């Protein structure tokens, strides 16, 4: 049996979503602050959920571990992202492991129920990463920032959004496996066909006629052989 298309779509989208979400989680670029009043014109401060880095674009000098003087990491959206993004990654890994056991591309028949459960886990993982990304975006311009700075969304936030959407779509595709389970349960079960009972003249896998159809022919030949010939007279 071929692997269903929905399962293939789920197994393609979810690993891609995991890669994007992982990059968005660890990269310190959820927000960029430029044109800071007491810094050079080409200085850009990149703020993530774990670290802050400053880069001077003209010389490409980059220094991470910037001091959090404004209490940026103490803000609720940042703290929520620090808790929910790693949880989403853990759920994604768990869902992919269950999906691999459910789809079973190396077997003829997939386990539709297990694949559907994996889809639910991956759907939850996508929501767990989408919630902090959406909340951070909503509070992007209210989070503490240096005075006079211009605020824009960083690439880590965009990758987190894309990864969350891919995981949700992949999870929804795998949850379609529940439909196949419902069809199997609703389908009427036909009684098994009775097998031919083995008799004294039957052999395994073949059918033998219990009547000797050549018996009459042999009797006729014996009668002909018992008639007197001309040489016997």
How would you portray this structure in words?
The protein is an alpha+beta fold. Helix content is 52%, strand content 9%. It has helices at 5-26, 76-103, 112-138, 155-175, 177-186, 215-226, and strands at 31-34, 43-47, 52-56, 61-64, 150-153. Helix 1 (5-26) runs antiparallel to helix 2 (76-103), helix 1 runs antiparallel to helix 4 and helix 3 (112-138) packs antiparallel against helix 4 (155-175). The longest helix is centred in the middle third of the chain and has 28 residues, at 76-103. The protein starts with a helix and ends in a 7-residue tail after the last helix. Residues 195-203 have low confidence and may be disordered.
Features:
single chain; alpha+beta; 233 residues; 5 strands; rod-shaped; five-stranded antiparallel sheet; 6 helices
Provide a brief overview of the structure.
With 233 residues, the chain is of the alpha+beta class. It has six helices and five strands.
Write the layout of secondary structure elements.
Layout: H1 5-26, E1 31-34, E2 43-47, E3 52-56, E4 61-64, H2 76-103, H3 112-138, E5 150-153, H4 155-175, H5 177-186, H6 215-226
Helix pairs in contact: 1-2, 1-3, 1-4, 2-3, 3-4, 3-5
Arithmetic mean pLDDT: 82
Low-confidence stretches: 195-203
Largest sheet: 5 strands, antiparallel
SSE succession: HEEEEHHEHHH
Structural class of the helix and strand makeup?
A: alpha+beta
């Amino acid at each position: 049996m071929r692997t269903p298309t929905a399962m293939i779509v789920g197994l393609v989208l979810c690993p891609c979503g995991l890669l994007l979400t992982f990059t968005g989680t660890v990269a310190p670029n959820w927000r960029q602050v430029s044109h800071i009043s007491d810094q050079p014109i080409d200085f850009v401060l990149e703020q993530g959920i774990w670290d802050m880095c400053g880069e001077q674009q003209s010389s490409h000098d980059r220094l991470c571990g910037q001091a959090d003087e404004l209490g940026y990491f103490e803000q609720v959206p940042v703290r929520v992202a620090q808790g929910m993004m790693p949880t989403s990654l853990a759920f994604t890994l768990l869902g992919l492991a269950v999906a691999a056991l459910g789809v079973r591309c190396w077997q003829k028949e997939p386990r539709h129920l297990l694949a559907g459960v994996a889809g639910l886990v991956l759907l939850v993982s996508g929501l767990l990463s989408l919630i902090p990304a959406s909340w951070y975006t909503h509070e992007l311009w209210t989070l503490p920032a240096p005075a006079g700075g211009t605020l824009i969304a960083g690439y880590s936030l965009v990758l987190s959004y894309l990864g969350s959407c891919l995981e949700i779509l992949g999870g929804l595709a795998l949850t379609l496996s529940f439909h196949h389970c419902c069809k199997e349960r609703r389908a009427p079960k036909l009684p098994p066909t009775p097998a031919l009972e083995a008799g004294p003249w039957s052999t395994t896998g073949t059918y033998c006629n219990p009547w000797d159809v050549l018996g009459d022919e042999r009797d006729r030949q014996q009668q002909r052989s018992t008639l007197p010939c001309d040489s016997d007279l």
